Amino acid sequence: MKKNKKQKGEFQLLKELCEIHAPSGQELPVKDFLLRYIKKEKKHWISQPEIIEGNEFQDCLILKFGKPRTAIFAHMDTVGFSVRYFNQLLSIGSPDAEAGTKLVGHDQFGPIECELEYDKQDHAFYKFGRSIERGTTLTYKIDFRETKEFIQTPYLDNRLGIFNALKVAETLKDGLIVFSCWEEHGGGSVGYLAKYIYKKWNVHQALISDITWISDGVEHGKGVAISLRDRNIPRRSFVNRIIAIAQKNKIAHQLEVEGSGSSDGGELQRGALPFDWCFVGAPEHGAHTPHEKVHKKDIETMIVLYEVAMQEL
């Protein structure tokens, strides 16, 4: 397989995406970043997308290329914390961080960099020199680390899924890219997004551009993971088509079988529309921690498989 010649230096975009403060419910900063990036970069893309947004889509965003047959779904939100009363914190999604982790945010009194603490009952609190305005959201302080083989930083889930979608957009002729909200905290946007693209273009198959886990059967550097199931079970005949595409094109990949975890694919499956979907994503160590870690080979194979699958599906 040819090495992606655009890979060198491209992780600056991933770093910028990871630095955006946008936990579930607060995705607008990511949408605004994407609109600026797309309007600047699309002149270099093979096809020019139609940009679809508006009040009926809340903070979500759709890119439509040519005559779409398949949609890529990538969620924009991250895990984090909401400030409650006094110095109490409530989880957004399922963050997994040790005491002493640096959290950042901003309220009407200025920028915030505080520390995460727990009591004996594992209730979360913040340690800061003043009270933080209730309702303020806090996320992990970004520490973006790059080596020859790995990227390690908070929020590869799912800024890497967005990064993948933007890389695929460079060569995409026919397809949809759908940027969704709230995935980490129960979802809620995929239903109306799916309804729109199904009625508008009769698109009823999707790839879920998200990040999965290193496990006893999925390893670093062995290629992108194609999920046969998680908490949800997609239609096997569709998943088999993705596997066949990877095999035919000699793209390194791993087959994942898990009994927990979910994604935008779960919302598609629980919806009232006949969508086929498959979760295809790079595996990471340290999911939802400040130390998420992904092998560069798995990023590369993720991009290549999406590029080919969007052509062949």
List the topology elements:
Blueprint: H1 11-18, H2 28-41, E1 50-52, E2 61-65, E3 71-75, E4 80-83, E5 88-92, E6 102-107, E7 110-118, E8 124-127, E9 137-140, E10 145-146, E11 150-152, H3 156-169, E12 175-180, H4 190-201, E13 205-208, E14 212-213, E15 224-229, H5 236-248, E16 253-257, H6 264-270, E17 276-281, E18 283-284, E19 293-295, H7 296-312
Parallel strand pairs: 3-12, 3-13, 13-17, 14-18, 15-16
Antiparallel strand pairs: 1-2, 2-12, 4-5, 4-9, 5-8, 6-7, 6-9, 7-8, 10-11, 11-19, 15-17
Helix pairs in contact: 1-3, 3-7
Molecular structure report:
The protein has 313 residues and is α+β, with helices and mostly antiparallel strands. It contains 7 helices and 19 strands. The strands form 4 sheets. Strands 1-2-12-3-13-17-15-16 form an 8-stranded mixed sheet, with helices on both faces. Strand 10 and strand 11 form a beta hairpin. Helix 1 packs across helix 3 and helix 3 crosses helix 7.
In short:
With 313 residues, this protein is of the alpha+beta class. It is 27% helix and 27% strand. The two termini are 20 Å apart.
If you consult CATH, what is the topology of the largest domain? Aminopeptidase
Q: Main sheet: which strands, in order across?
A: 1-2-12-3-13-17-15-16
Largest sheet: 8 strands, mixed
Uncertain ranges:
1-8
Spatial shape: globular
Please estimate the helix content.
Answer: 25-40%
CATH class of the largest domain, named: Alpha Beta
Radius of gyration: 19 Å
Average pLDDT across residues?
A: 96
CATH superfamily of the largest domain: Zn peptidases
CATH architecture of the largest domain, by name, is 3-Layer(aba) Sandwich
How far apart the termini lie comes to 20 Å
Q: In sequence order, what are the helices and strands, one letter per element?
A: HHEEEEEEEEEEEHEHEEEHEHEEEH
